[in-house]
């Protein structure tokens, strides 16, 4: 370079610096003005922060504006307009706004702006930390950060479980912004030598209430200990924001601004404006059939279906795939490898028509475009979970529908807790004749496929356990579950025996007895519900047993004293139980081994006479559309596919019962006669319902294959019965063999595991020890009540085997994991400067 050119480029650099300095000074002035105006209007009692509507009206750097324009962001959403000015002014924020309302930008813009204004560079280390409760959400935040930070030269990294920890370690020291899941971040804080967090300027908690709840409590507290308390700005965002003083104290917030977009009074603002919410009361044993029928009738939709446990997700996915409903089916849950999770997340994002079965790992924050329906196959654990789940549809300006399936026993409690949040879904019903029963298909699949059968058993146990562990006992009662019919609906020959159901039943009995006793002797305090809760957790003492016998009257006063003492102990126990529940997320179902699984009935001979198919379909053909019906169901070209196509949602369903009567009265006589004659012939034992008959010229019914002369051919029925018995025995035998095989596999797995552990221990003794992250890093702690089978369970199939090995790998930093292409891409992107270097 000659001297002329060198001096020209020096000049250009100086000019650039001067213009940057000018820009920053100007921005600082505007920000100060903005904050002054805000403080004054606040003093004057005005609730609105600023009147700005567009991003270009904010005091933002040119570089940030380039990123926003590239992403076509022009107008701000409410939460952005209210919170960004305050965040730019350095305030701590508690941001609450409905799902899909743009909270991500509301915290990312201030993060980038602050580091830019403070001239943060590679040598300054970590300046901002963004925490997300799930890996997918962290990836998504990182993607948005990349997009809007495209013109900046600040380095950003993604630190999530399921990736190569060693690779992360090497790069961590160079990052200015980290998007992380709590468990993995803490692991780095503990293990990575040059990972310095003492200079962090900004901390963001997305889905803050979740990050701060019990599942993450210890991890977040440990992270906070590593961050500076003074001078740090903290932003918390969620659709269901926490305002609990205890939480805020943990974060050392300084006079936080509470920025809420929803209307606190009518609470309607919790929900997206364009969301149509529905619920349906469905007996447990019909759930899968209803779901399958729903899918069959919504082939041109994008549907997200939530279950409470991984095994259910797996089972529904596996079994529905076998039935080929006619659209792509995917599943997402915490037991998948991270690469697979990431691929599925991407595939569903890009899909136009597809079904994604998921646990609550997909409930929060994920921004899948154009989801038409969110179905909650299992009821959410609470109203907040409901809000986040349904928020996966109707995002930003889009429209969407949600449908929650409730068991009859859950309806009252769930609707009441939703109502407290101002959420009132409308009831709809499916046409019974349009619900295609899939029980027999499932039985058939399970008969042929042992793997699927064991998956069904695990799904059964997982579901029952999830109900058992629910904290809202007034809504979720495990003793009310119809276990046998449920097992049958999964295709199982009988309900696996589950120990904790017996425990729950015993606890319920004890609770009832205790209540009776208290009624008899009088009890000083507590509502009935409190009493029940206490009693159900209560350990039966010798005094209980004593007083269950004869002499209560004699020692009544003494007994009351004993009860009073017990109550104090019980309340302590209750707290412990809750903590234990929160900690059980990861190792749920480890005890599944202990669950005795027996099948008391064989499939053969148990085919339930199913009358609904032919009879009810006839009913529906003549079913008129009712003007009084809130929701009616369209007849599509293919009549069988017609299920619950939504037509109108503008009036109430008060007349449901009368509707049924009206339906019958409007049926043609011929249809009614056909219906009754079929029922009559079934009742007369001529045929099982669903069995085919032929009619002769006189109109007499005959079976399709009839014996010419039964007396000469012997008793065909007893022969048939013998056949059924034989089949049943064969099935039971094969069940025993299957079980033995699985036991053997488990035994081998345990031996392998022990060997591995021994080898590891020997290795460890030889070298330096490594401090490991807490258990909850494995799943990022986020499996809500996702009570999945633990290690023992994983032993049962090869894929789970790999998964277990993979999870262990995370904790051995000296062993390299196979890098994966997609995450690799992200990692390299993380390394790049945001300015596109
Ligand atoms: N100002 C804006 N203009 C246009 N689109 C926007 C704007 N802000 C956000 N969006 C879009 O709205 C969608 C939802 O945004 P985002 O994921 O940030 O919502 P959220 O409030 O964080 O939702 P959740 O509570 O579910 O986490 C995204 O697709 C995003 O691109």
Automatic annotation (TrEMBL):
Biological processes annotated in GO: rRNA processing
Residue ranges annotated for the DEAD-box RNA helicase Q domain, each copy included: 53-81
Keyword Repeat: no
Positions occupied by motif Q motif: 53-81
Compositionally biased intervals (Basic and acidic residues): 26-43, 513-522, 623-633, 644-654, 689-706, 736-747
Keywords attached to this entry: ATP-binding, Helicase, Hydrolase, Nucleotide-binding, Ribosome biogenesis, RNA-binding, rRNA processing
Reactions catalysed: ATP + H2O = ADP + phosphate + H(+)
One Gene Ontology CC term in the entry: nucleolus
SUPFAM superfamilies: P-loop containing nucleoside triphosphate hydrolases (SSF52540)
E.C. number: 3.6.4.13
Record domain Helicase ATP-binding: where: 84-259
An example Gene Ontology molecular-function term: ATP hydrolysis activity
Domain called Helicase C-terminal: residue spans: 274-446
Localization: Nucleus, Nucleolus
Record's function text: RNA helicase.
PANTHER family: RNA HELICASE
Domain notes: The Q motif is unique to and characteristic of the DEAD box family of RNA helicases and controls ATP binding and hydrolysis.
Family the UniProt entry places it in: Belongs to the DEAD box helicase family.
Protein name: ATP-dependent RNA helicase
């Amino acid at each position: 370079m000659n001297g002329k050119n060198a001096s020209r480029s020096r000049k250009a650099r100086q000019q650039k610096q001067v213009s940057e300095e000018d820009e920053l000074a100007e921005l600082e002035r505007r920000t100060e003005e903005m904050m002054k105006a805000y403080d004054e209007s606040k003093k004057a009692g005005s609730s609105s922060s600023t009147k700005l509507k567009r991003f270009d009206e904010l005091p933002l750097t040119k570089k940030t504006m380039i990123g926003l324009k590239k992403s076509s962001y022009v107008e701000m959403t409410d939460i952005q307009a209210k919170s960004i000015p305050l965040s730019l002014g350095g305030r701590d924020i508690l941001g609450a706004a409905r799902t899909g309302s743009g909270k991500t930008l509301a915290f990312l813009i201030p993060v980038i702006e602050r580091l830019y204004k403070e001239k943060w560079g590679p040598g300054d280390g970590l300046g901002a930390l963004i925490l997300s409760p799930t890996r997918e959400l962290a990836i998504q935040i990182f993607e948005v950060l990349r997009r809007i930070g495209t013109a900046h030269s600040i380095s950003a990294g993604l630190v999530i479980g399921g990736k190569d920890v060693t690779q992360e370690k090497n790069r961590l020291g160079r990052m200015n912004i980290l998007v992380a899941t709590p468990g993995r971040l803490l692991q780095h804080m503990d293990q990575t030598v040059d990972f310095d967090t003492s200079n962090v300027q900004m901390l963001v908690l997305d889905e803050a209430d979740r990050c701060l709840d019990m599942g993450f409590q210890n991890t977040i507290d440990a992270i906070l200990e590593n961050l500076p308390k003074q001078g740090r700005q903290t932003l918390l965002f969620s659709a269901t924001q926490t305002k609990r003083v205890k939480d805020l104290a943990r974060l050392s917030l300084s006079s936080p601004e509470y920025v809420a977009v929803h209307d606190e009074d009518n609470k309607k603002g919790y929900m997206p404006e364009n969301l149509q919410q529905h619920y349906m009361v469905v007996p447990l044993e019909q759930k899968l059939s209803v779901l399958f029928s729903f899918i069959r009738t919504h082939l041109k939709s994008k549907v997200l279906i939530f279950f409470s446990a991984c095994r259910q997700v797996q089972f529904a996915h596996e079994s529905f795939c076998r039935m080929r409903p006619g659209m792509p089916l995917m599943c997402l849950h915490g037991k998948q490898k991270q690469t697979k999770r990431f691929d599925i997340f991407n595939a569903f994002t890009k899909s136009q028509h597809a079904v994604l079965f998921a646990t609550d790992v997909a409930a929060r924050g994920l921004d899948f475009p154009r989801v038409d329906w969110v179905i909650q196959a299992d009821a959410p654990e609470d109203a907040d979970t409901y809000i986040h789940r349904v928020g996966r549809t109707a995002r930003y300006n889009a429209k969407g529908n949600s449908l929650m399936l409730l068991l009859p026993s859950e309806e009252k409690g769930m609707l009441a807790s939703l109502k407290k949040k101002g959420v009132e879904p409308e009831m709809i019903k499916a046409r019974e004749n349009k619900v295609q029963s899939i029980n027999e298909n499932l039985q058939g699949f399970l008969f042929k496929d042992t793997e699927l059968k064991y998956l069904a058993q695990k799904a059964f146990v997982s579901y029952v356990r999830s109900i058992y562990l629910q904290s809202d006992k007034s809504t979720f009662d495990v003793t009310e579950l119809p276990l046998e019919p449920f097992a049958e609906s999964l295709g199982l020959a009988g309900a696996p025996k589950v120990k904790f159901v017996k425990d729950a039943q015993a606890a319920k009995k004890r609770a009832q007895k205790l209540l009776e006793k208290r009624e008899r002797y009088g009890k000083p305090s507590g509502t009935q519900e409190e009493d029940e809760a206490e009693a159900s957790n209560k350990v039966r003492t010798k005094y209980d047993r004593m007083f269950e016998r004869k002499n209560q009257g004699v020692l009544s006063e003494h007994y009351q004293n004993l009860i009073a003492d017990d109550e104090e102990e019980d309340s302590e126990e209750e707290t412990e139980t809750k903590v234990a529940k929160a900690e059980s997320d990861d190792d749920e179902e480890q005890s599944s081994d202990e669950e005795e699984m027996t099948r008391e009935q064989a499939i053969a001979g148990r085919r339930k006479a199913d009358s609904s198919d032919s009879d009810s379909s006839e009913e529906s053909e003549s079913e008129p559309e009712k003007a009084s019906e809130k929701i009616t169901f369209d007849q599509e070209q293919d009549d069988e596919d017609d299920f619950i196509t939504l037509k109108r949602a503008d009036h109430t369903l008060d007349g449901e019962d009368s509707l049924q009567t009206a339906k019958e009265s409007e049926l043609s006589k011929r249809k009614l006669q056909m219906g009754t004659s079929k029922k009559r012939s079934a009742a007369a034992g001529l045929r099982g319902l669903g069995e085919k008959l032929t009619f002769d010229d006189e109109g007499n019914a005959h079976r399709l294959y009839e014996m010419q002369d039964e007396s000469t051919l012997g008793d065909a029925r007893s022969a048939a019965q013998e056949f059924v018995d034989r089949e049943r025995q064969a099935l039971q035998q094969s069940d025993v063999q299957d079980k033995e095989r699985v036991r053997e596999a488990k035994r081998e797995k345990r031996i392998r595991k022990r060997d591995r552990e021994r080898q590891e221990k020997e290795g460890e003794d030889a070298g330096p020890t490594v401090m490991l992250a807490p258990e909850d890093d494995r799943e990022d702690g986020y499996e809500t009540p996702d009570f999945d089978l633990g290690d023992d369970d994983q032993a049962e199939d090869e894929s789970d085997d790999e998964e277990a090995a993979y999870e262990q790998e995370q904790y051995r930093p000296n062993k390299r994991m196979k890098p994966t292409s997609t995450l690799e891409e992200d990692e390299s992107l993380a390394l790049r400067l945001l300015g596109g270097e």
